[in-house]
Amino acid sequence: MKAGGRAPSLSIVIPAFNEEQRLPRLIQELATSAEAIAASSGFSFLEGVIVDDGSTDRTPDLLREAAAAQPLLRLVSSERNRGKGAAVAAGVRAARGDYLLLTDIDLSTPLSDLSHLARAVHGGADMAIGSRVVEGSVVKDAPAYRKRLGQGFNLAVRALTGLSFGDTQCGFKLLASAAARELLAAQICHGWAYDVELLMRGRLAGLAIVEVPVTYVHDPRSRMKVARDSVRMLWDVIGLSLRLRTCERGRQRRLRATTR
Q1: Coil, strand or helix: which one is 106?
Q2: How many CA atoms within 13 Å lie on the side-chain side of 123?
Q3: C-alpha span between 159 and 29 (Å, rounded)
């Protein structure tokens, strides 16, 4: 997977909304560890792309200061809050790396787990997704109610979409930048359910997607309100499934018409 004898470049894409409390740790981690972690996983670290999704606290100021001081940090800004999925898509469009690691600002899955996903991609997978439920995964400090709601949501996703993954919502995913841009070009879900859309579009495109065990440490400061947001996500998935299935049926009809 090397081009011209060099390791492929890696951009790390992170959405942020009102994250003045958690941002300093992320910036420190990118500054001190990202290059070594990427190198040990077969990549050259190109940049960290942090997308400010219309924050109203000190997040924009902290990001501007960090970007001015660190050449490997890039800031993408949105004037209003559009949702996690929209922020990730904006980061994907701006990123310049050959490969993208999509991750969350709380580092609930440590950057060092990139090596697990990288092995899958170097081995031929088109996309490697972190999982908190497959054998070998480690989950720490997650409340029981969050686990139960997560399990229920993933069962619903399987029933509605036909996806077979045990964990669609882990925010730790690795794929080629060209594939990410293609999959998110016609994005429907701009919120928390964007992961499901990414995987559905990947499946429809015939990508080889591998679920990889990772470590997950729950952050009690998570911005996701599980009960409320799970209901909203479920409605998004229902709408997404209907629209993508309709598009796929239309594509199949056109394909059959051209082969008659």
Answers
A1: coil
A2: 11
A3: 38
H or E element, residue 189: none
Q: Where are the domains of the chain?
A: 9-259
Alpha helices in 78-138 (DSSP H): 84-94, 114-122
Provide the b/e sequence for 24-39 (b: ≥16 CB within 10 Å): eebbebbeeebbebbe
Helix, strand, coil percentages in the chain from 3-state DSSP, rounded to 5: 45, 20, 35
Per residue in 97-145, pLDDT (tens digit) is: 999 999 999 999 999 999 999 999 999 999 999 999 999 999 998 888 8
The structure's pTM equals: 0.90
Cβ burial 43-60 (10 Å sphere, 16+ → b, else e): bebbbbbbbbbbbeeebb
> Could you give the CA distance from residue 216 to residue 15 in angstroms, rounded to a whole number?
18
Instruction: Look up the CATH superfamily of 9-259.
Output: Spore Coat Polysaccharide Biosynthesis Protein SpsA; Chain A (3.90.550.10)
Alpha-carbon torsion angle 81, 83, 86, 92, nearest 10: 100
Cβ neighbours around 143 below 10 Å, total: 11
- Residue 6 CB neighbour total at 10 angstroms: 9
DSSP state of 8: P
Using CA atoms, how far apart are residues 87 and 30, in angstroms rounded to an integer?
19
- Identify whether the C-beta of residue 35 lies closer than 8 Å to the C-beta of residue 113: no
Is residue 48 within 8 Å of residue 130, measured between CB atoms?
Answer: no
CA distance 41 to 114: 7
